[in-house]
Amino acid sequence: MLKIIEIEARLFLRDRLNSLFAVLFPSLLLLVLGAIPALRTPDANFGGQRFIDSYVSALVVFTLVFIGLQRLPAVVATYREKGVLRRLSTTPMHPARLLAGQMVVNFAAVILSVLLLIILGYVVFGVDLPHHPLGLACAVVLGGAGTFALGLVIAALAPNARTAGGWAAVVFMLLMFLGGVYLPRFMLPSAIQVIGSYAPPGVEALQQAWLGTAPDWRHLAIMGLVSLVAGTVAAKTFRWE
After folding, report:
1. To bridge 151 with a disulfide, which of 23, 37, 68, 211 should be the other Cys (CB 3.0-4.6 Å)?
2. What residues make up the domain containing 175?
């Protein structure tokens, strides 16, 4: 298992464009936004906070959604299309371990990206450290699990890597919109805000844990339910060949 994780980590690092983008882009975008004076000024629209303070949760959403829906399904679908999974099925190692290695490496990338965002935001712009670290960790894990499970459903049903990329792009844009990445959430209709609060990866829980108190248990429960249901669907429909 450790060897599989090592190999998957090497392959992740070889894909420099996607890997660096997933890990570094949220922090780079924070630097760009923070360079705008108006976005470093407290605003009543954000509850007296600065835009960059309220936007950090959306940047975490970007990391989870990009890795879970842009990278994971494409890699798994490519493995199937190129016969990697079929070859592994003839060996003593079950192909499921390959998926486990993928999950470990991608979650490690998420953690690295979030830690970099926390450090950079605090050192450069004085963004508050997460007010509820344990709550943020739970929100990231459960929100990531739900998002990754959706990615695995796409990987399970898509006949090839190109189709997986197309399906994932649609879900990616939808979750980015609901997560307040494209537009600040206060600008969205109230019904869309509510839907976004419960849709993976759970922007409301992330924001509560970072800038407020413990995240609402209902948001975390929904993330856990999504990961359970989507994970079950992926397991039932997944094809190794």
Report:
1. 68
2. 2-237
- Token pair 């007296």 is at which residue? 48
Q: Do 14 and 111 touch, CB atoms closer than 8 A? A: no
Give residues with Cβ within 8 angstroms of 11, minimum separation 6: none
The total number of structural domains in the chain stands at 1
Enter the tokens of residue 67: 């890795």
Strand, helix or coil for residue 131: coil
Residue 5 contacts residue 101 (beta carbons within 8 Å):
yes
How far apart are the C-alpha atoms of 136 and 127, rounded to whole Å?
15
64 has a pLDDT exceeding 80: yes
Structure tokens at 44: 């009543």
DSSP state of 47: T
Q: Which residue has the higher pLDDT, 241 or 162?
A: 162
Residue 165: closest CA among 237, 59, 77, 56 = 77
Q: Report the distance separating Cα 172 and Cα 182, nearest Å.
A: 12
Closest-CA residue to 6 (of 139, 145, 124, 101) = 101
Instruction: Specify the long-range contacts of residues 5-11, CB closer than 8 Å, at least 24 apart.
Output: 5/101, 5/104, 5/105, 7/101, 8/98, 8/101, 8/102, 8/104, 8/105, 9/105, 9/108
Cα distance between residue 237 and residue 113, in whole Å: 31
Q: What is the pTM of this model?
A: 0.90
Please, what's the largest Cα pairwise distance for the chain?
61
What is the token pair recorded at 66?
């990009």
Q: Report the pLDDT averaged over residues 198-226.
A: 89
